[in-house]
Amino acid sequence: MQTEHIKSLFLKYKEPDLNHRYITNKHLAPLLENMSYKLHVETIGNSVLNNPIHGIKIGCGDKRILMWSQMHGNESTTTKALFDLLNTLLSGDSSVNHILNNCTLYIIPILSPDGAQAYTRINANQVDLNRDAQELTQPESNVLRDAFNAFKPHYCYNLHGQRTIFSVGKTNKPATVSFLAPAQDEACTITPNRKVAMEVIGVMNKVLQEVIPNQVGVYDDAFNINCVGDTFQSENTPTILFEAGHYHNDYGREETRRFIYMAYIASLDYISKNDVSGVNYESYLKIPENEKCFLDIIIKNAKIIRGENEIITDIGIQYQEKLIDKKVHFIPKVERIENLDTFYAHKIIQANKRTVFNLKGELLEVDNEIDFVMIDNEKISLLVK
């Protein structure tokens, strides 16, 4: 499918009722009710706090694909894109009918509804579900495991979001979308089913390079059997980790949502049309590995007074995501005061060797939360616009 056509599908079928970063069961309920007349929606279990976990089945093909999102409740971009995908598949658009005819998708849109409601990575028992694949101590972990066992997927899509700190290699390019074909043993052997996952990732990368060149990365594949992706891969099911990252000025992740949707469509189109063998896996190996080279803001060449000394250095600001009145706010926090020549930033402020203060006229310190700075007499906002 041509990239321009995928872009046009997104514009037609983007779900208008899902926006920004805070997505919970409450937001999905009316959408699922509307869709229940067209596809199979069921409650497949409950969370620690007894919130329902939903499963959605769509398609009638032989190729089975299991997709789950918001295993970490504060990673919602892939969930928004799932509903854009569902709208597309339910539209009757002739250009996607082959996906439904050749594939059956089973989608868990929010695996951690308690984490989604609280906007946290962990569940209500303070457990990271992505480290519970072996012990299965949490009800949400067992819901996913049961779905995997019952559906017997040929592919797994493990859908996540990543912080703004990640770069594509050591470059001034944010990792807007990242992937991983997880390892299935300590040696990180490139096994036949990893090759299948790699081949599909290569297809998605090719499409994304047309819209976000040099902004796609892969994660280090160090093996951890406690992670869900590594566990499913070790059971010989090709598994793909998706990570929705930062795009310029897109803290609400609406642009990244589009790129994730494009990856969904490109991969499902490819799987539906091909018997993926893994023979074309090598393009995956050319995708750069992510590094942690970004801060949200760097104030360059700031004058800092330390006792009787004046030094010229940099101030690094990282946003802390906080849920306030059911909306995600980005709180600027001083992360580093040091030479930051080895870092990049999503925004650069030049202090030009002037002193930087807070609004009370005090010097900045690491861990300060601060919305504005004064550079001489100039008041500068650090807030997300």
TrEMBL record:
Gene3D superfamilies: Zn peptidases (3.40.630.10). One of its GO terms (biological process) is proteolysis. One of its GO terms (molecular function) is metallocarboxypeptidase activity. It comes from the Bacteria. InterPro entries: Peptidase_M14 (IPR000834). Residues 18-271 form the Peptidase M14 domain. The keyword Nucleus does not apply. Its cofactor is Zn(2+). SMART domains: Zn_pept. Keywords: Hydrolase, Metalloprotease, Protease, Zinc. GO terms for cellular component: extracellular space. It holds the Pfam family Peptidase_M14. The active site is at E243. Belongs to the peptidase M14 family. This is M14 family metallopeptidase. It comes from Mariniflexile litorale.
